[in-house]
C-alpha cells in the first residue's frame, strides 16, 4: 500500500467517522423559553402547527428535519436583517442552530418584523341548530389556511355561542414572558367597537339603561366588572403566534371578573394538568348559555346586555353560564364543567340554576374529580354535568358518541 493511498484512505475514513459522529449528535432541541423569539413566526411542521414533543416540553428535530416559518402579512427577520420573504423553510443543523435562506443562525434569531396577522374565515357549516355561522380563526400560510380554533358566532346578537379547540398532553408547556396583546375585532363586529363596549364607563351606562339610574355603580367596581372572558384559553397554546390569535373578540364573552379569575381560571389550569396526566388529546367545546339577570330598582329581574344598536335593540348579552364540554374521542368519554356567571345570587337562586346532578359533588368528587379544585372564595358557584343531562339543556352542540365520563 503506497503512502499516497494510505493518506487518501485515512482521509476518507476520518470523514466517515466525523459524519457518523455528527449524525449521532446532530439532533436539534429547542426550548420554548430560551429559543423562541417574542415576536415569533407561525411554525408549521408536517402540515400542522408546531407542538412540543418531549416530556420536558422541548421540541426535537432529527438532522435535516425542516419546519416552515411564516409571518403572514409581515416579513421574516433573520439575525436582525429583514428579508423580502413572508415564508421560508428552516433546516435543523445541530442543537438550536438552523439553516434558513443560506444562513446558519440560532433559532431565536428568526422572528417577524411585526407580529404575524391572524384572520377569520367563514365556514360553509352552520351552527346553533342552523341559526348562525361557524368561523375559523387562524393563519394563512402561502395558499393554505391553518385554523387554530372554530367559533359559532351570531353577528346579529353579537354572541359567540361556543368555541371548539384541542388540548393536548403537552398543552401544559408554553412560551412565557410574552407581553399581553390587545384584543382585536377583525371584520366580524361591524360598526360595534368592542374595546369601547368593555370600558367601565360603557358598562355603567349599559347597566343604568337596563336597571335604572345609579344601578351600574351598585354592581360595578374596580374588582368586580365584566371582563373579556376567554373561551379557548390563551394558555392552552405553546408559541407566541398561537397565543396572540386567542385575543380575538370572537373568542370572548362578558364574564364577571371574580369568576374569571376564580373558578374559571382554576378549571383551565386543572384541565391542562389532567390532560397531561392522562396522555390523551381532548376536544373542548367552551361556550356560554342563557341570560344573566339582575334586579332593577323595582326588584324586577332583567336580562343584562352590554350594548344597544341605533334602534335600541340590545346585543352583546351577558350569559348566565360558562361551560367546558371536554371530550376524549379515543375513549369516547365526556364531562361538562360549568360556572354560574354571577356573584350576586343567594344560595336559593344558585341552587335553582343547577340543571343536572352535580357529578363533582360528594362521592364522585372524592373518587374521580380530585384533580379539580374550585376556588370557593370567588363568590360564584360551579358544578359538573354528565353529557346526556347537559345536552337536554344545551341542545345546539355537535352530537358526540359518548359512552362514559371524562375523569
Number of helices: 9
Roughly what is the average pLDDT, rounded to an integer? Answer: 93
Helix content: 10-25%
Major sheet strand order: 12-13-14-15-18-23-24-25
Q: Report the span from N to C terminus.
A: 72 Å
Overall 3D geometry?
globular
**Strand tally:** 25
Strand content: 25-35%
Tell me the radius of gyration. 25 Å
Any low-confidence stretches, pLDDT <50, length ≥5?
A: 13-18, 20-25
Describe the protein in words:
It is a single chain. The chain has 407 residues and is α+β, with helices and mostly antiparallel strands. The chain has 9 helices and 25 strands. The chain has helices at residues 3-24, 194-197, 200-211, 215-219, 240-245, 257-278, 347-353, 362-368, 387-393, and strands spanning 28-30, 42-45, 48-49, 59-61, 66-70, 76-78, 81-82, 87-94, 97-100, 103-106, 110-112, 119-127, 132-141, 144-154, 159-167, 226-230, 252-256, 282-289, 293-295, 301-303, 305-308, 314-317, 321-328, 333-340, 382-386. The chain has an 8-stranded antiparallel β-sheet. It has a 6-stranded antiparallel β-sheet with strand order 3-2-5-8-9-10. A 3-stranded antiparallel β-sheet has the order 7-6-11, with no helix packed on it. Strand 6 (76-78) and strand 7 (81-82) form a beta hairpin. The longest helix is centred in the first third of the chain and has 22 residues, at 3-24. Mean pLDDT is 93; it is low at 13-18 and 20-25. Residues 145-390 form the DNA/RNA non-specific endonuclease/pyrophosphatase/phosphodiesterase domain. InterPro entries: DNA/RNA_non-sp_Endonuclease_sf (IPR044929), Endo_G_ENPP1-like_dom (IPR001604), ENPP1-3/EXOG-like_nuc-like (IPR020821), His-Me_finger_sf (IPR044925), Non-specific_endonuclease (IPR040255). Keywords: Endonuclease, Hydrolase, Metal-binding, Nuclease, Signal. Residues 1-26 form the signal peptide. Pfam families: Endonuclease_NS (PF01223).
